[in-house]
Amino acid sequence: MPQDSAADDDRSRADVGIVAALPLELAEFLRRCERVRHYTGGGFHFRGGRYDGVRVVVAESGTGRQRARRAAQALLDAHHPRWLLSCGFAGALQPQVRTGHIVIADRLFALDASPVQIDVHMPSDPARGWHVGGLLTVDQIVRKVSEKQALAAQTGALCVDMESHAVGEFCRDHNVRCLVIRAITDDTSRDLPPEVLSVFGATGAVRLGAVIGALWKRPASYQDLWHLRETALHAAERLADFLDGVIHQLP
């Protein structure tokens, strides 16, 4: 291989690849990285930079298992990361898991697929808001507390998202080391506003028309959506803080 081609290949490699559905989820973490670059490819947005010398690339997959698996494949093909992480937001299924807490998954569940086991060498630390346990991946946003309680009783999972099982399954099938880290944006104390089902598109972008329509139909939804935005910003900061301590510990 020519020397310049080898150098280009080396620069394309990443130590850590992260699949995140929404830009907001990793925005605070990427703000702490250096020399962040942005490009698009294969229908996804990629942002890569260095975190204290560790090369990190984030693929913004959009919502859902199919897109998350495709984003994981794109990361592996383009950047050959040593680790693949599924990071972002999740909804709590258990009452002890509160907004702003962090869940590190050691088991990934889906109602229509076999579980995926992940070796996590750390204990839970409830005093710091860190929980190690099961995560359930579903195909629709779980909005109501009653729905969360039913899923908790059925699976025993700590929280629920829409992507992580696909990433864990991909890593298992391709023998890639995996971690799943989720920050909680909604707990079991209240239902999510009904508008949350319509304001996010499949790619993770906010549908401005849906927001305007929600405000027109129910003016009080402004307060609900603003509260959701504030909890999401807090969760993104908590996730970035936790990743601060994780990235350098990955072998």
From TrEMBL:
A GO biological-process term: nucleoside metabolic process
Boundaries of every Nucleoside phosphorylase domain copy: 16-192
Cellular-component GO terms for this entry: cytosol
Gene Ontology molecular function terms on file: adenosylhomocysteine nucleosidase activity; methylthioadenosine nucleosidase activity
Pfam family, one: PNP_UDP_1
Gene3D superfamilies: Nucleoside phosphorylase domain
Name of the protein in its database record: 5'-methylthioadenosine nucleosidase
Natural source organism: Schlesneria paludicola
Phylogenetic lineage: Bacteria, Pseudomonadati, Planctomycetota, Planctomycetia, Planctomycetales
